[in-house]
Amino acid sequence: MRFLFNEDKNVMVITTKKILENKDKIYTVYHDSDDGMWQFIGNSDSDNSEVCLVSLEEICKLDDSVNDLYDMPCGFMAYKENGQWKISEQ
Length: 90
Known about the structure:
2 helices
């Protein structure tokens, strides 16, 4: 497993239950400007009852491609387009 992030492997991040259960893929990633929190969100709509906290390492195990975003600055987001990550300001 690759792990390229500067954060500790056990730093907590936000994701959804559907992603953890492999019922959805990570489609959008946010690196929040206010607190530096990472959010890994799927393509399907999720309500707050589906939000989960997991380690960054667990996210990397679920989808190795998120390592491509290891240096994405706070205040930016990424989304998948044709299998590639596209980065923009939030």
